[in-house]
Design goal:
This protein has 417 residues and is an alpha+beta fold. It has two domains: 109 residues, no CATH class; 235 residues. The chain is 44% helix and 16% strand. The chain contains 15 helices and 13 strands. Helix 13 packs across helix 14. It is elongated and about 95 Å long.
């Protein structure tokens, strides 16, 4: 889980956006320094001594140091180069000096200004190189070819992520959603299909992230089948919104999984069927449903909702009554998990920060590069996710234990795959 966010968008350690920008800046700076050194060594690879040994080679890393930037203090461990060449004019040893981060640098206005651009435009060499030239001049130390190799690594990382073996993981709960970050994808109506799961130890992990059509059964089925091909077991519960394509795909690929509709999405759909004057009361009535102490009280709250709004606004009531089973599925799981299972908030909260970053990029090059950018932003956020409440009960759920109204009833052996 991400850090707890207060009403003003801050966390206990500061702004949530600042945290993500700081981590992204640190990673991009480290990658840029590595690319600069690799280019330097590659250009001098032909220079050898009389025994054929290279005169310029890598030599570990310097001691970590903290550089103060606009993104905050960044702890940097710069790569070190062993350069054994001698300047014939002076007789002194030649030394490698980073143009990006000179040895003396502890607080650099230029670096402070360029880091956000490295972060925001790092996937597009067309934007990246002019930014470096603008802030660091023509001696930035990174050619367009080097930048391309550097930024291609993000796409390679995403591709490797999408092909990784999932057989060593067991996702008991899965959240699924289609989100629309402000990046250029392959089709006009494409979105980013996201799967996020809870492992046996209660920790959250990004399962998959791919381009697709939110309402398309085939898009979701392709993603789920690919996960199954790579070893993913059927989850006990899938949490998602009302997109029918998702639920048809889940039923096809993982027929044993139970369905839970997201109450946040459902509440939006219901209030859209109501006049503004009726929306506050309806919102409170829906809260009484999903916050009920047990399923019986939740069902009574649905009946009360139907009595209050059914005569004037039957469409609003139908949206809840027709999906009642899927809306109340969470009552069959541990009470400690209810707060996590009622909504797709783990995805929503993560992508609220992603959208803020991608909104200002105005596109990130190719669709593959855009998707890789989103992946890297989520990967950066993932290190702050926390285990769900009652993490020790997740394994019990997977074992087939039966819960009624959130309370453990009996243990059954679950053989579903």
């Amino acid at each position: 889980m991400l850090s707890v966010v207060t009403a003003d968008g801050s966390t206990h350690s500061g702004s949530l956006i600042d945290e993500i920008v700081r981590e992204g800046a640190r990673r991009m700076l480290a990658a840029a320094l590595e690319a600069e050194v690799n280019q330097y060594i590659a250009e001098l690879a032909a220079e050898t001594d009389d025994r054929g040994r290279r005169l310029v080679v890598r030599n570990g890393h310097h001691r970590p140091r903290t550089v103060v930037t606009a993104a905050g203090p960044l702890k940097v461990t710069a790569p070190r180069v062993n350069d054994r060449r001698v300047d014939e004019a002076t007789g002194e040893r030649k030394r490698f000096s980073s143009k990006i981060l000179p040895p003396w640098c502890r607080k650099s206005p230029k670096i402070s200004e360029v880091l956000p651009l490295l972060y925001l435009h790092g996937l597009s060499s067309g934007d990246f190189v002019p930014a470096l030239e603008q802030f660091l001049g023509g001696t930035a130390g990174l050619s367009p070819a080097t930048v391309t190799r550097l930024t291609k690594q993000w796409s390679d990382d995403h591709a490797a992520f999408q092909e990784r073996d999932l057989s060593d993981r067991d996702f008991v709960y899965v959240w699924a959603d289609g989100v629309h970050p402000k990046v250029r994808l392959g089709q006009a109506h494409s979105c980013v299909l996201v799967l996020l799961g809870v492992r046996l130890d209660g920790t959250k992990e990004l399962i998959a992230l791919a381009e697709g059509l939110r309402e398309s059964t085939e898009s979701w089925a392709d993603l789920l089948r690919d996960c199954r091909r790579r070893g993913m077991r059927a989850p006990e519960l899938v949490v998602g919104d009302g997109a029918m394509g998702l639920w048809k795909a889940v039923s096809e690929v993982f027929p044993a999984a139970r369905h839970q509709r997201c109450w946040v999405h459902k509440a939006r759909n219901v209030t859209n069927c109501l006049p503004k004057s009726a929306q506050p009361g309806a919102t409170k009535a829906m809260q009484e449903i999903y916050n009920a102490e047990d399923r019986t009280h939740a069902e009574k709250a649905i009946e009360a909702f139907a009595r209050t709004y059914g005569t004037k606004w039957p469409k609003a009531v139908t949206k809840i009554v027709e999906d009642q089973e899927e809306l109340l599925a969470f009552y069959g799981f541990p009470a400690e998990h209810w707060i996590h299972l009622r909504t797709t908030n783990p995805i929503e909260s993560t992508f609220s920060t992603v959208k803020l970053r991608t909104k200002v990029t105005r596109g990130a090059g190719s669709p593959a590069a855009a998707l890789a950018m989103v992946f890297k932003l989520v990967e950066s956020a993932q290190i702050r996710w926390r285990a769900i409440t009652g993490a020790h009960l997740v394994a019990l759920v997977r074992s087939g234990a039966r819960f009624e109204n959130g309370v453990f009833v009996e243990r059954l052996e679950n053989t579903a795959a």
